[in-house]
Write a structure and sequence with these properties.
Largest sheet: 7 strands, parallel
Low-confidence stretches: none
Strand order of the largest sheet: 3-2-1-4-5-6-7
Oligomer: single chain
Structural class: alpha/beta
Distance between the termini: 13 Å
Number of strands: 15
Bound molecules: uridine-diphosphate-N-acetylglucosamine, uridine-5'-diphosphate
Shape: globular
């Protein structure tokens, strides 16, 4: 059986790392990298550290408007599908690469499998929500990380093809946490290219969403909040925000924000496991905080992962200094549970793909 996997962005590399390893034991995988993320520390470092096979195709498509990026991907992925004639197209998450892969597959009548299916915020103002809805409505098999995601699909009439398999991000987190242990590994590099020493105590923050980092005001509030805390904040900065962050940190004298270049996944896992608390707008990082039993404040208007919010374990905050500080100081019950599976979702994902093939 030939499976063609489409990836393009950082969180997809992590999920593909655990699933591809299982898939390739018995099947042929053609790996297509759209090129959406392309800097060394946004792309290659993940392939190297996580032993992801080199992509068979790199389409080199990135930047531009969402429409331009998605349109170019659609054209190129279609060409690859026509040349490779896979039995199934495998897609992860909610990026433009995911939606382009889904559309290309359905137009050629190749069944698409969507991993991380069913999550919903309830607003189409969020670009990832649009990608999720489109992808889910043209996919043949819907593999959900959580029960809540399956319920969202049922409300939209997607029932028989939806299954809860657990979260491959949880599989990856468990697997690589054990590998990383207490070794820091990678050296942090600041935004000017200098080595940065990791303090003994720190908060871990990521912030890259348009809503928070696409203009100055919210970012000034978020960084301003972190700058008042007892410990420094480690902030690996997405390349899209680098210039803005550098300017704001300098202008406002936010000396307790230790900004650095994006780190590899192993370093990120280390930071999650060793930090005091996490502040983020990342879908991945808020789950990892939950997996690691760390207090998390998610600076976002919508709940993305309802299972993490129980007992205040993950709290939403507005991009306002006072709200972020209030949420950070609120007491939390720090425990994990099996809402995201048992750490073997990759096996269930591969089994479900096989069942789909047999039923076609
Ligand atoms: C994308 C996903 C988002 C995910 C994030 C993961 C969509 C709609 N969004 O957002 O769900 O959380 O990836 O990190 O697909 N850039 C670089 N170097 C890179 C990558 C990007 O400089 O390696 C710059 C480019 O100028 C690009 C901009 O960052 O235009 C934004 O990148 P893009 O891939 O469009 O969106 P993300 O914000 O990364
Ligand atoms: N991550 C990383 N390096 C960084 C920042 C984040 O490896 O510098 C990891 C993080 O641990 C998480 C994943 O990237 O697993 C999440 O990716 P991102 O926040 O870019 O996307 P999202 O999850 O919001 O779609």
């Amino acid at each position: 059986m030939k499976i063609l996997t489409v990836v393009g962005a950082r969180p997809q590399f992590i999920k593909a790392a655990v699933v591809s390893r299982e898939l390739r034991k018995k099947h042929t995988e053609v790996l297509v990298h759209t090129g959406q993320h392309y800097d060394y520390n946004m792309s290659d470092i993940f392939f190297e550290e996580l032993d992801i096979p080199k992509p068979d195709y790199n389409l080199g498509i990135s930047g531009g408007s969402h429409g331009q990026m998605t349109g170019q991907m659609l054209i190129k992925i279609e060409e690859v599908l026509q040349a490779e004639k896979p039995d199934i197209v495998l897609l992860y998450g909610d990026t433009n690469s995911t939606m382009a892969g889904a559309l290309a597959a359905v137009k050629l009548q190749i069944p698409a499998v969507h991993v991380e299916s069913g999550n919903r915020l309830g607003t189409k103002t969020n670009p990832e929500e649009v990608n999720r809805i489109v992808t889910d409505h043209v996919s043949s098999l819907h593999l959900c990380c959580t029960e809540s995601a399956k319920r969202f699909l049922e409300k939209e009439g997607i029932c028989d093809s939806a299954f809860v398999v657990g979260d491959p991000m949880y599989d990856a987190f468990l697997y690589y946490s054990e590998k990383v242990g207490d070794e820091q590994g990678e050296q942090l590099i600041d935004l000017y290219g200098n080595e940065l020493t990791l303090p003994d105590h720190y908060y871990y923050m990521t912030c890259h969403r348009e809503e928070n980092a696409g203009s100055d005001e919210p970012l000034i509030e978020i960084l301003g909040a972190m700058n008042t805390l007892d410990y420094a904040t480690i902030y690996p900065v997405h390349p899209r925000n680098t210039e803005r962050v550098k300017r704001i940190v300098k202008e406002y004298g936010f000396t307790k924000i230790l900004c650095c270049k994006p780190v590899g996944y192993l370093m990120s896992v280390y930071l999650v496991n060793h930090c005091e608390k996490i502040v983020t707008d990342s879908g991945g990082l808020q789950r990892e905080a939950f997996f690691a039993k760390k207090q998390c404040v998610t600076v976002f208007d919508y709940v993305v992962w309802p299972e993490t919010m129980k007992d205040n374990r993950n709290q939403l905050a507005k991009h306002e200094k006072t709200d972020i500080l209030a949420k950070l100081s609120k007491e939390q019950i720090l425990k994990s549970d099996n809402s995201f599976g048992d750490g073997f979702s990759y096996k269930k994902i591969v089994n479900k793909i096989m069942e789909l093939k047999r039923s076609n």
